[in-house]
Specification:
The chain has helices spanning 3-13, 19-38, 43-50, 53-66, 77-88, 93-135, 147-191. It has 194 residues and is mainly α. The chain starts with a helix and ends with a helix.
Amino acid sequence: MNKDTFLSELKRSLGRMPESERKDVLYDYEEHFRMGAADGKSEEQVAASLGNPRLIGKSYAIDSLLEDRKDGREATAGSVVRAVFASISLTFFNLIFILGPFVGLVGVMIGLWATAISLPIAGVSAVLSPIAALIVPQWVNLSGIGVAIWVFAGIGIAAIGVLAVIGMYLLSRLFLRGTAAYVKLNARIVTRRR
C-alpha cells in the first residue's frame, strides 16, 4: 500500500471527527511517511510498519467521541454508546469483550435505577396512606398500624430513596467514565497505538 492509499483510507475511517483533529492526525501520518523516506524506506514499508489505516482511523474516531469537552463537561452517554459500537467494529473479539459486558452492566444499571426511583415513591405513598385511608377507607387498609408509624416509616424510606438516587447518579457517572476508559484502552490495544 502506498502513501496516498494509506492516507485516503485513514481519512475515510476517521469518521465525523472535527476537521482540526482530522488534519492533525493526517499530518502526523504524513510526517511518518516523510521520516521513512528520509531513512531510505519505501512507502510500502512505512505503510506496513504503521498498521491497518482503517483500524487506526477508527481508534482515533473512538478517542474523539470519548474526549472530555472543552467546556469541562465529560463525554455524554450517547457518545459512550456510539464509541462502544464503533469499537465493536474493530475486531470480532470486541463483540465478546466489549458488547457482552456493556449490555450486562447496562442491565444492572437499569435495575438499580428502577430500585432507586421506586424507593422515594414508596416513601411518599406510605406518608400519604393515612390520608388515603380517611378519604377511601374501603381501598386503603392500615392493618392496625398506627398513623405515626406509617408517616415516619414513609419519611425514612423516602430519605433512603433520595440517597439512593444521588448514589445512582454518581455511580452512573463512574460507569460512563469507566466504560470510556475501557473502550479507549481496547481500541489502542487492537490498533497497537500508544
